[in-house]
C-alpha cells in the first residue's frame, strides 16, 4: 500500500519489478523500488522467499534435542556402571576384610590355646 510520498512508477519503469511486484517511486529518490507480492523478496522481487527457514530452525532444534538426549543417556549409563562397579568393589573388599578377620581371630585363638 503506497504512502503519501510514494507514486506508482511511470512507463519508463514498467518492467522494473519482477514476479508481480508493484513499482513505486519517491520523488526525492532517483531510483524506483518494489513492493513484492507474497513469497517474493529482493530489491526487484527477484528472489523467491521460502519459509523453509522455519523448517530449518525446527530441524536444527530437533538435532540439538537428539544430541542432548544421547549425551544424557550416555551419562546415566556411565553413572550406573561406575556405581555398580564401586558397589561390587566395596563388597569384594568387605569380603576380603571378613576373611582376614576370620584368619586373625583363628590365629589368635590358636596362640592363646598354646598352639604355635
TrEMBL record:
The keyword Transport does not apply. Residues 5-46 form the EGF-like domain. The chain crosses the membrane at residues 61-82. One of its GO terms (biological process) is epidermal growth factor receptor signaling pathway. Disulfide bonds join 17-34, 36-45. SUPFAM superfamilies: EGF/Laminin. One of its GO terms (cellular component) is extracellular space. It is found in: Cell membrane; Secreted. Its main location: membrane. SMART domains: EGF (SM00181). Keywords: Cell membrane, Disulfide bond, EGF-like domain, Glycoprotein, Growth factor, Membrane, Secreted, Transmembrane, Transmembrane helix. It is a single-pass type I membrane protein. Belongs to the neuregulin family. Low affinity ligand for the ERBB4 tyrosine kinase receptor. Concomitantly recruits ERBB1 and ERBB2 coreceptors, resulting in ligand-stimulated tyrosine phosphorylation and activation of the ERBB receptors. Does not bind to the ERBB1, ERBB2 and ERBB3 receptors. Interacts with ERBB4. This is Pro-neuregulin-4, membrane-bound isoform.
